[in-house]
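Journal club prep, shared notes

We agreed each person brings one worked example of a sequence with its structure written out as tokens. Mine is DENN domain containing 10. I'm keeping it raw so we can talk through how to read the token line rather than staring at a rendered picture. Sequence first:
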Amino acid sequence: KDTNGDALWVWCYPSITAELRSLLLRKCCLTDENKLLHTFVFGQYKRSWFYITTVEVQDSPALKKVTHFSIVLMTKDFNPEKYAAFTRILCRIYLKHGSPVKMMESYIAVLTKGICQSEENGSFLSKDFDARKAYLAGSIKDIVSQFGMETVILYTALMLKKRIVVYHPRIEAVQEFTRTLPALVWHRQDWSILHSYVHLNEEEVEALKACTGYIAGFTDSEVNSRPDLYDVYVNLADSEITISPVVKEAMTMGKLHKEIGLLIVQSAEDPDKSDSQVIKDISLKTKEILATLVSLTEVSDGNEKPTLNSEALKQKRFPPATENFLFHLAAAEQMLKI
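Then the structure, token by token:
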């Protein structure tokens, strides 16, 4: 952004589609009317992750006519801490030299050797940033302290691969909350369901609708009146969770859910437990549920994948809500005969 207040797309390597370019300009706070500076935002679009770091320029002889700039990194993996650290180094290089060429040298070094070193700008080592670390970086305890027993609604929605929309006017709050949710279903270790920064833009909404289950973060309160986008709606600002009528039946809560809810709350409220221990406790309960499900399956017709034997499920005489949940879980885990 220059001293005239114009936001310009200056440089790009290797190349980018027009569609992605307009998406990234939309995500970058320099084009935003409200003048709020977001130092770091991230999200994904059609399986590509974007990480955007923005800095204000102060006394940089190399960038006399520039007031702010953003550096966007596109990657195939989810790792906000890794790319926040790397884009910060790239920002320092750009502040110093005012030329993308120097940034390129560091980018290529990280791409080929996984490391870039410089005395004044700091060094960066790819292998310091393990994917698992990124998965564990959010705080489950914070989610439970905000939603208590209702956390089990989020757990159930994730287990059943439903569509969760999260709203908060502050993008930082949305990102922190949404990035942690996939840890509730740790056995899948699947962060591709996370879309932490979505605009109500036609292309983005269409791309989102093409996904089966997802967690989508919005800062536009209009999303509340888009029931076509969610099964579960989380208003983070008001600490409210709403279940859409469409999934009321699949998401019926019963004794099992109460048990899971209590386990989540007790574990999260234990001051001696870390977030990763809480995730482990929930994961053990999930394994137990999945083991029950597997015990009710059979392998038939030379299919490798076992499918649910609904007679065996009925004979167990589980409470209706438990039977219902196991049936829908089998569907989510692709264990139903078509």
